[in-house]
UniProtKB/TrEMBL annotation:
Organism: Piprites chloris
Coiled-coil region: 62-122
CDD domains referenced in this protein's UniProt entry, alphabetically: RWD_Spc25 (cd23784)
Listed Pfam families: Spindle_Spc25
GO CC annotations, alphabetized: Ndc80 complex; nucleus
One of the protein's GO biological processes: chromosome segregation
Subcellular localization, as worded in the UniProt entry: Chromosome, Centromere; Nucleus; Chromosome, Centromere, Kinetochore
Name of protein: Kinetochore protein SPC25
Length: 223
């Protein structure tokens, strides 16, 4: 607008000077040229003013897009941080669950080992009592005790049959998984062996158990 004002002032000065030199026809042509030039300048001015406004709008739009991009980038960063934190928390929880599971397995294993150790100890104690009674049984009852495979003991009675003193009467004994006495074989068979076996489990009186079996063999020898 300042340039247009200066241009109009220069045109007026030129016009005053021009009138003093040229005639009316030249003046009219010059006026027409001036008006055309002025009109072109106005059109051009309006056009560029519009383009400047469009440019300003474009700049504002670009700035708006930049702000949105920054906001989105910030949001993405926050989400990534939250995701990382969630993953860490999940890993910590999984690690804790795994640790707890391992601890439970260790405790269960320790209990199983303790139970097995207790059972093994009980079996060994019973076997020791049996071995300690061996000499007594051999002397008093004419009994021979042999250790056979699978942690079993074989009891062999002699001097029962007065017709054949060397004839053996045998039964085989083991300790089952529950830690109870169990007769696995008996020769010759005795109908009362199950009753004797149940009684020794209740009373834990092993000498009486062996004595009762010998009495049963003796009674059988007289039949």
């Amino acid at each position: 607008e300042d340039e247009i004002t200066l241009f109009e002032r220069d045109m007026k000065e030129f016009w005053i000077e021009f009138k003093s030199v040229y005639g009316t026809e030249q003046i009219n042509q010059t006026l027409s040229l001036r008006d055309s030039c002025k009109e072109s300048i106005e059109v051009l001015s309006a056009k560029w003013s519009k383009k400047l406004k469009e440019g300003d709008l474009m700049i504002d739009k670009i700035q708006e897009y930049n702000n949105e991009i920054l906001q989105q980038s910030k949001c993405i960063s926050e989400k990534e941080e939250q995701l990382t934190e969630i993953k860490l928390n999940e890993e910590e929880e999984q690690q804790k669950n795994l640790t707890d599971s391992i601890q439970e397995l260790k405790e269960e294993l320790a209990k199983q080992i303790e139970i097995l150790s207790s059972k093994d100890k009980a079996v060994k104690e019973k076997m020791e009592r049996l071995c300690k009674s061996k000499v007594l049984f051999e002397e008093c009852l004419g009994l021979e005790i042999r250790r056979i495979p699978n942690e079993q003991l074989q009891f062999i009675f002699r001097h029962i049959d007065h017709k054949d003193p060397d004839k053996p009467y045998t039964f085989t004994l083991s300790i089952n998984e529950k830690g109870d006495y169990e007769v696995t074989s008996c020769t010759p068979p005795l109908d009362c062996i199950a009753e004797f076996q149940l009684k020794v489990r209740e009373t834990n009186n092993f000498p009486a158990f062996v004595a009762n079996i010998r009495k049963a063999f003796t009674a059988l020898s007289y039949k």
